[in-house]
Amino acid sequence: MRHFVIVGILVVLAAVGAYAGLDASGLMPVAASAQAGSATTAGSIDWMWNLQVIAMSFLFALIVVPLVYALIVFRRKQGDTSDAEHITGNTPLEITWTLIPLVLVLAFAYLGAYSLREVRRADPQAMIVKVHAQQFAWSFEYPDYGGVISDKLYLPAGTQILLQMDSKDVIHSFWVPEFRVKQDVVPGRVTELRITPTLPGEYKVRCAELCGTSHYSMENGVVVTSEAEFIAWAQEQQNALASAQTPEGKGELLVKANGCLGCHSITATALPTAPTWFGLFGSSVTLEDGSTVTADEAFLKESIHDPLAKIVKGFAPIMPAYSNLTDEDIAAIIAYIESLK
Amino acid sequence: MKKIYSIPLVRGLVWLVVGLVIGIAAVAGIRAALGLDATGRYLFTEHAWVFGGFVGTLAFIATHGVMGDWFKWWRGQDTPEHHEDPASWLKYLGPSLDHKVIGIQYTITAIILLVVGGTFALIFRTELSFEGQQFLNPDQYNTLMSLHGMLMIVSILLGIAGLMNYLVPLLIGAADMAFPRLNAFSFWIAVPAAVWLLLSMPLGGVETGWTGYPPLSANPAKIGQQMFFLGVFVAGWSSVLGALNLIATVARMRAKGMTAFRLPIFVWASIATSLIALTATQLIGLSFQMVMFQRLFGMGFFDPAKGGNPVLFQHLFWFYSHPAVYVFILPGLGVVSELLPPLIRKPLFGYKWVAMSSFGIALVGFLVWAHHMFTSGMNEYLRVPFMYSTLLVAVPTGVKFFSWVATIWKGKIPTPMPSAFLFTIGAIVVFLMGGLTGPPNATVSTDLHLHDTYWIVGHFHDTLFGGFVFPFFAALYYWFPKATGRRLDERLGRLHFWLMTPAFLVLSSGMMRIGLLGMRRRIFDYDPALGFENMHVTLTVAAFLIAFSIAIFIYNMIVSVKEGDPAPGNIWNSRSPEWQVPSPMPAHNYETPFEVVGEPYDYGLPGSKYVEFMKK
Amino acid sequence: MTHTPDKKSALNQGVVVFIYLAVLTALEFALALFLPNVVLLGVVALVKAALVAYYYMHIYKLNREDSGEGHDSLAYKIGTNRLGLWLFLLSDSFVFGGLLISRFNLLGMTRPHLNQYLGFGVTAILLISSFFMNRAETSIAHGDKKGFQTGIIITMLLGLGFVVGVVGLEWQLAKIEEVIVNKDVVGGIFYMMTGMHAFHVLTGLIFLFLVWRNGRRGYFTAENHWGVEAAAVYWHFVDVVWIFFYPALYLIGSTP
Ligand code: HEA
Ligand code: HEA
Ligand code: CUA
Ligand SMILES: [Cu+2]
User: Which CATH superfamily, name and number, covers A244-339?
Assistant: First the structure.
């Protein structure tokens, strides 16, 4: 009996200690959405998570403390060669530790379902943003604002956003750790995700499904601002869209919308995936077969329409063909590339 | 030269290459004759490589010698059941029919693959230590990471097959497995499987992780993906046939008196495992085969442009690959239950409950697969039932844990603790960590955050180490003397344990920590803004410590086979039949058959007996 | 052993079962014409499969107490082999189950445009082949080597006819109906299902051929004809698979 009392006390102490330690070490990144919530908003993810941490701490202590205690206390004495007491089991005890976990997991599943419902709660007034994923970049379209396209996700705090997501090639997954929720983006269908940003700041959407060579770099910025700032930004974008009359301006928009910058860099340092465009125009490019070509208009055009025709040395032939781009679009993109010096 | 060629393994491998070449040449020739492209980016076209791999596999098994008896049957000749193996170590390279030899073949192959896969992990962990690119490019990273995952999994499958092959016939008093020839076949077919998995590296690598999700895995640029699928497909057959054999063995070859509830716990665990492996494995085979065919023939199963459904693949894949995780651990947990009683001289607490819990885990394990797909875009309403079923697995698993603790409670804990005991305890603690980190993943709302992060990576390294790696080592320390007649060095064993365990705990908890904070899985480099570099350096150091401890273990094995302390008798003072005969185990298991007359784990009950050898 | 029926009544049983199967197949076809209900068709297929499994594949033998001669007796060994074979079939049926699930997931209530006469024809051929396989096995079990030879040759010929019908004819006709391997998922599923099944028929044919040739050399006796039994059970299993594939491909749903 004495053993049970001591162990009981130790289990409680260890469980409380483990929970306090875990809690104090800050397990989760800041919470920036209503779905993430906090440990005290019932139904939110962080609330559910906090319950999980409590359960994990307690169950861990419940097993490990008696185990370690037994290993220390019941050591064989020097010179003792006898066997231990012949105890083969105890059916009421077995039933107890089958039923209690059963009740516990059912309770957790119930809470989980409740929490899922809260997290998915839909606001009919939600603002729609279309998310386009492709290897290896995101782009965001705002149908409510004249179809503005951006490579950064701007969101107003306090409004529920309905993301309608599609993919051009393979499966990607939309995840902003600070928002907690995650949803795969599957080619051939539109998947949906609801987020209500709450905390203004800069975050990143990080693709969470392995999607090929540069999956690691498939990260685009997310900016949460106040409602007013967001509307101002959207206006500005709409104006820019209207006035993007120079070919470079149009090219820049196209490049963003088509996710080229997921692989290509526009600064002097190249990404490992693809050659940089910085200073590309007019330079001489070495091809895989050792020959060189000058990066003139014809070559760039061919490279975009039929990327496999000439492969730049040192890179894998992973660039998709952009048959959706018209000749005019391509001319604009080339003008944009030309401007990068 | 001729002598080397006469070694079956060498002969088989030579013919494997010949078969590969013939297959490739045939396809290339036919294509050329039809006026199609005969050559491709990797010298030949994808069709040629796949067909070559297929022919190579057949050539290997046909020439290696494992099919010798079958060929004779087909010609209508009878063959004797018992072959004599060569006396030297060469028997391990040939088609032996002795389950003990096959068990050792499996175990050694498993250790080799563990080292290869572990070395891949060391390489990519070194790359991950620091921000930015060190010495790998992203494609090489993805290839190493994917093959690490798959080689480790194949290694586990072979490792448990090794344990089950060696132990189950001995534990139930059988002369051999039910189908010795099939047994040899199951092992040897795993060899070409490993070859194809590794051949994927020079052919463009694997970029999908071990899960091989299309449409990414249908990317035609990487032929390596096909060799990967082929390798897994062939390894799957090894697993299916091994499981079939094991079930038949337990069903039909038990000694007299070996009733269901007198079976050693490890045997219960093995049947539960085998039932899963026998049935579910076909689905990973089918899912990979369908991607292979999509690539080869343009069938649009998973191609949305042709009306296919990428999510269907995930259902088929996880229908196997979730139950498979229980294939990995059930034998390991069986080892834990099997070793505790003799080591602490106390009966297993609640034997029947522990036995049935393996079945509980196996059966419920069939109903939970979609918990890997909570974010996949599958039908939304499926998420909640799968959450319930997944959480239910905790119940039978908990029964095991509570029973272990109750077994240890008031046991006679050996001093000093033998390595086998240390690893058993390590298994319990580590697997508990892995198990307890399961329910947060199973709860949909928290999984929305946790999915595809290093938290998951931490979760499954804990379960895999606790459920397989630690028990595997425990079993090796415990039964090595049975197989060789010599003990492993205990000092080195303790060093192995005390190096590996803390290092591993750092590795897995570090993974979980950064995972929660935003570290995605399967990335070759991470955003410096996250500030993970210090943790990654720590993880890499921990990884090297684990590798170092395993190197000590391997050294210990190699040295102890010849020079370990002789251990001819019942060194653990166990009640189990295999310890009642001299070690190393005689070639013909039990010269005099035994009869089961008591309960398996009645330690501390004076005068009780488990088995009694019949008088001639 | 429980009572062994004499040869004549064993053969007669085969005939009766075959008649049931034939009637059910006709019923299936009629149902598909007038009352194309998935559940109904599924039930008919299940009944057919159960008939084959019980009367032709003798699944009940798995449950048979072996004679007490110990583990080394021939009867015990054959019992073990039988268990092994059935475990294999259980495993294999997961492949076909997976294919059926894929078919319903991808095509739902549509089906490929196929030649109904041909489908009905090959189905009939395969069923008849099972009937003759049963005769062959029953014959050898009663020591009738001649009946065995005849039965197995007819089985092989019918099996060959099935393969020719599916691969040689149906695959060509389907192409004309725009069921094309790489065009869309309809073609993919059709060729995958029939292809995997035809592959099993082919291995079954090879198996039958080996058994036939060994049988000609007098290898099998009434007491020991495990090889024949294995080939027969495998052959019937392939038939059972088709019992499900046929409605799934030809009868259920409507053509687009
Ligand atoms: C050996 C392998 C193994 C084992 C045993 C487990 C066991 C469990 N796993 Fe794990 N899992 C993996 C290997 C394993 N897993 C792998 C490899 C992956 C990643 C695959 C990939 O994507 O590559 C994965 C991923 C994975 C996911 C998907 C995560 C994601 O990708 O989003 C989920 C989700 O539900 C999950 C849940 C569980 C649960 C609930 C258990 C349960 O079985 C655990 C049960 C055990 C306990 C709970 C502890 C003991 C019980 C008690 C002490 C009783 C009391 C407890 C309670 C009342 C809770 N696992
Ligand atoms: C049994 C299974 C198993 C084991 C043992 C391990 C062992 C290790 N794993 Fe794991 N791992 C997986 C199964 C396993 N892994 C799986 C399934 C995945 C998922 C893959 C995917 O996402 O697709 C994964 C993924 C995975 C990742 C995530 C990669 C990513 O998402 O990008 C990481 C990262 O750190 C990692 C690290 C390690 C490390 C450091 C070890 C270490 O423990 C390794 C220790 C080293 C060795 C075992 C080698 C031993 C010995 C020597 C080198 C000595 C040689 C000496 C002589 C020959 C005498 N693994
Ligand atoms: Cu997109 Cu990863
Ligand atoms: Cu799982």
Answer: Cytochrome c-like domain (1.10.760.10)
